[in-house]
Amino acid sequence: MSVGAANFVRRIPEGEDRERLTCAECGFIAYENPKIVSGSVVSVDGRVLLCRRAIEPRRGFWTIPAGYMELGETVEEAARREAQEEACADIALDGMLALYSIARIGQVQVMFRARLASPGFAPGSESLEVRLFSWEEIPWDDLAFPSVHWVLNAWREAGPGPLGAPRTNPTEDRRGTRPLTEGA
Amino acid sequence: MSVGAANFVRRIPEGEDRERLTCAECGFIAYENPKIVSGSVVSVDGRVLLCRRAIEPRRGFWTIPAGYMELGETVEEAARREAQEEACADIALDGMLALYSIARIGQVQVMFRARLASPGFAPGSESLEVRLFSWEEIPWDDLAFPSVHWVLNAWREAGPGPLGAPRTNPTEDRRGTRPLTEGA
Predict the structure, then answer these.
(1) Residue B2 predicted with pLDDT over 80
(2) Tell me: the pLDDT tens digits for B113-134?
(3) Is B180 strand, coil or helix?
């Protein structure tokens, strides 16, 4: 994270090996850490639920329900909350599909496989539109982020059975450092 | 995270649903997010590598090599770096054993299964001692954290073969909210 207070400077604290955001007055170290995104591939009768983003970045593009995990919740609770917020969907998780590191932007993304726990969905305040897509209908060119491609493919390859070990970054972007403009 | 600057207050920003650490002067929001710990169960000929902590919390107790992920690295790189720092061990990961949410302290712990990539290990600056334990020798009463119990059991149950879906919190502490003093 970044801190707005003007008295924070970057320097290497004693006993550490890298620069930290440090208060020049009191020496307090504001550690900056990667953030966790929790999301889910929600399917209904083989079709996948996608949300068209109402907010930047990538407004107008399609994504799975996903967002930043909050303090005090579990990764599973975060995935369910995001589905509620973005798609007004009450979901049940049935396992982890993937864990992606996006080093470029300091994110770790935990992706679950899920189904609707009760019928119905609708756009939340961060979505323009929410709908189900068959595999053939998925708007690949209009997906918001590379990891949406990755996880949809992981979901497809996993099939409906028991989940094995979670997928990690694909070989072509092993560390999640490829610029977004290079596409999926 | 916490911020040391005295002008930060907790209040609900416009358009949000919960209190955020906010600069009373400029309105800057310092988002506080869960932190990611990355660690590994490193085994050599069926014995597990444990480190006796030289630092608080839980100085003197045994743990696996694990620590906070840094910005700009992947979870796998973080696990390898921590093994290097705490046990001077060069490790190779072979899959994810577990993903734990410790809601009580705002942590997500990603746990890998690993082996030594090159021979040798020694205490790093944060360890008093590093050694290999057979399953029967593991000092269960002197382990530093509940999740060390959890992941050692996950490692044992996984056996040496291909890893399936990662474990999550055990049923007795589903959200990671049990006080540390209640034991594992």
Answers:
(1) no
(2) 999 999 999 999 999 999 999 9
(3) helix
Beta strands B35-44 and A107-116 are unpaired
- The mean pLDDT of B47-68, rounded to a whole number, is 96
In angstroms, the separation between the Cα of residue A84 and the nearest Cα of chain B is 14
- State the best of B14, B18, B55, B71 to mutate against chain A, taking most chain A CBs within 10 Å: B71
Q: Which residues of A touch B174 (CB under 8 A)?
A: 74
Q: Nearest 5 degrees, angle CA A96-CA A97-CA A98?
A: 100
- Residues on chain B touching A166 (C-beta within 8 angstroms): 96, 165-166
Does B96 contact A at CB distance below 8 Å? Answer: yes
CA distances from B153 to B12, B48, B51, B95 (A): 42, 12, 17, 16
φ, ψ at B12 (rounded to 5°)? -90, 115
How many residues are recorded in chain A?
184
Q: A66, A96, A98: which is closest to A82 by C-alpha? A: A66
* A138/A144 Cα distance (integer angstroms): 12
**Rounded Cα distance, B177 and A89, in Å:** 26
**What pLDDT, on a 0 to 100 scale, did the predictor assign at position A152?**
95
d(CA A82, CA A1): 21
Using a pLDDT cut of 90, give the percent of chain A over it. 63
Instruction: With beta carbons under 8 A apart, name residues in chain B contacting A4.
Output: 23, 26, 28, 30
pLDDT grade for B1, boundaries at 50, 70 and 90: very low
ipTM of predicted complex: 0.86
Q: Output B162 or A42, whichever has higher pLDDT.
A: A42
